[in-house]
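Input chain follows. Return structure tokens only.
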Amino acid sequence: MAKFRLQTVLDLKQRLEDAQQRELGMLTQQRLRAEEALQYLAAQEREQEEALASRVHGGRLHIDEVRSAMSYIDGVRASIVAQRDRAAELEARIRDSRTRLTEIARERNVLERLRERHTESEAVESGRRDQRAADELTSQRYARQAWEV
């Protein structure tokens, strides 16, 4: 049986697909962590705003404390914006990674079908060779019998 000539290409596509799946998994985990960090920052912002509001209503707050609290809240807001940007960037990378994975899988599937066709045609050809050999033996046997008579 002849070897499938594109087997090395098929093996390469399989390795590429596996690597792309790993990359997609890694990016997905990073996005989840970014979303968790974003939720944490949003909770921090709410807590600090509520704490500042309660201290202002209580009337026991100095102007320097207000400035300090507002500065902290502004820093948290800046971190939220940066984290949203990071999450959006990761989402774009995930889309690209999925697209590449789909493309690689499609190419691998085409090669798999070619290999299956190759295997089938080899089986048919092997059957034909076996049949020719059997026919040749039968012809030789018949010729011997005819010759002996």
